Amino acid sequence: MHKIPLNVLPKIAMSADIATAVDAKNGMIVSERDYVSTWLTTVRNIWRLLGGTAHFQGLTNSKSIEEKTGTDFALVVANDFQIKIALIEAKRTYAGFDTMKKASSSAQKHLGVAKGIKMSRFSDEISRQHEIIQNTSSIYIAEAFISLPTDKHVAPHHFRLASHENAFDRINPTPPPPTQAPTKLWTTTDQEDLLISQTKSPRNIEELLQELIACRVGNPIDRLPSPNVGNNHITLLEQVRQHLNNAERHLENKAKAIGKSPRKKPAEKMAILVIEGSGTFGPTSEEKSAHQQA
Predict the structure, then answer these.
(1) pLDDT of amino acid 59
(2) 291: burial class by Cβ within 10 Å (0-12, 13-18, 19+)?
(3) Per-domain residue ranges for the chain?
């Protein structure tokens, strides 16, 4: 199977993002999920047309990986020996995008919101992301904001990113007071303030993948050997599924520990894109040379 160098993926993904934003501007995309699905499919198809290996599917979990981790989709980049994982929460930029919900166990623990108190759904998602970050150094999490023509407050645009760390710092009550109370709904102005505070990479999809491949965000996970070369991609997807399920299971155990029964929900799917290519994870040769000269 032909292996495409992973270092060309960031620009491909950014080009696909810009093309998806153009489709949205022309009225061909009407929802956040529609945008994410179109973009992921476009990246997969381009990679395959170039002769590479890519897989895009939904991971089903009875208690919803998406709900438990506070994210919408996963990007997985793999070479022959290791994988890197990024989880992304996608949000549209329009008035009223945020709603109220009762505080989860993660929000109670990390944000100090009392049980039964209603709070921002987005802030609650950020608290669940924080639980993942605290228990694994391998996964990188980011918030991605898009705007469609119907979102009148901001002109249509492609993904703009803010790191989970920046988002959590905004609502973190330690040290007090937080920039934004977790019980307060997020507004489009709050979104813009968060994006403005993201002064360093990654601020878009291209930078995210560059940072991921260079190992400046997240840590690589050793890839399990495949017992069947013909089903290598199945083994890889199973490994990713297991890794995400372990993160989700940790949150479930935390909920049980404080006496909160997991809510029963129908099976849901989390979108995941797996891209396989050649090259190693870490700094580029140019970066290594610059570091040595410094």
Answers:
(1) 62
(2) exposed
(3) 6-293
